[in-house]
Amino acid sequence: MGVIRRGANGGFKGKAGSVIGSSWKSIDYIKGLYKKRTKPATEEQLMQQAKFTLLMRFLLPVAPFIRIGYGQRRADTQTPMNVAFKDNINRTVTGSYPDYELDYGQIRIAEGYSAGGAESATVADGELTVSWDTTLNKVYKQEADDAVYIVLYHPGTDQFMTTPEPPQRMDGSATITLPAHFQSGVGHVWLFTADRKDKNVSKSVYLGEVTLG
Predict the structure, then answer these.
(1) 25, 48, 85, 95: most buried, per Cβ within 10 A?
(2) Can you tell me the distance from the alpha carbon of 116 to that of 99, in angstroms, rounded to the nearest whole number?
(3) What are the strands of the beta sheet with 27-32, ordered from one edge?
């Protein structure tokens, strides 16, 4: 795919001969028409497709968090989802084809400054409690009203949970009441923070695997 930097007539949209013109974020692109594949995919291509599918199945349901967590990373030329995918693909997919798995401890749903270290997640009586340090670090421009985004993933049901409303840094903790189908097996928990404009974002922290019931 080509990018139109300059030109006598500028960019164009639609089909023109063997190329298609389009525009995204004020950048004009041209690409060739899709050609139907006549050769079977190679093993290497199948491996890449399997990795892509596995990771995207995880990332797509948490797209609202990705938009915040990666919203400031090369947002002028790529979508937050594209940046998140590239950041995670080589680090998180493990195993051998076709039995790939995700290393949950390596997954990031936000990329930014690195701070903290006192975060924790525990489960008791059908509730997940996540705690964090309320001390403000002015070097990282942290504020008491920073939003705290929490993500719980349950591999057994392939579903996610979060708080109804993001708590604030000043709260120090948040509790999620687990529905019945979440109260078995294990879960994985992540946390990251963002200011009120979702501009100053922290790197997501993996809080580990928790026993749900």
Answers:
(1) 85
(2) 35
(3) 2-4, 27-32, 19-24, 14-16
Return the bridge partners of 32, or none.
19
Closest to 208 measured CA to CA, from 125, 123, 99: 123
Q: What are the strands of the beta sheet with 120-124, ordered from one edge?
A: 120-124, 127-131, 173-177
pLDDT of 146-184, one tens digit each?
Answer: 999 999 999 999 999 999 999 999 999 999 999 999 999
Looking up tokens 């949970």, which residue turns up? 161
Strand order in the sheet with 186-194: 159-161, 147-154, 186-194, 205-211
Can you name the residues that pair with 159 across neighbouring β-strands? 154
Task: Report the distance separating Cα 82 and Cα 66, nearest Å.
Answer: 10
Going from N- to C-terminal start, the domains of the chain cover 2-32, 43-211
pLDDT higher than threshold 60 for residue 79: yes
CA 70 to the chain's CA centroid: 7
Task: Indicate whether 80 pLDDT > 80.
Answer: yes
Residue indicated by tokens 């960019």: 11
CATH code for residues 43-211: 2.60.40.10
Q: How far is CA 65 from CA 12, 43, 62, 153, in A?
A: 33, 33, 5, 13
Sign, CA dihedral 72-77-79-81, equals negative
The answer on pLDDT for 1 being more than 60 is no
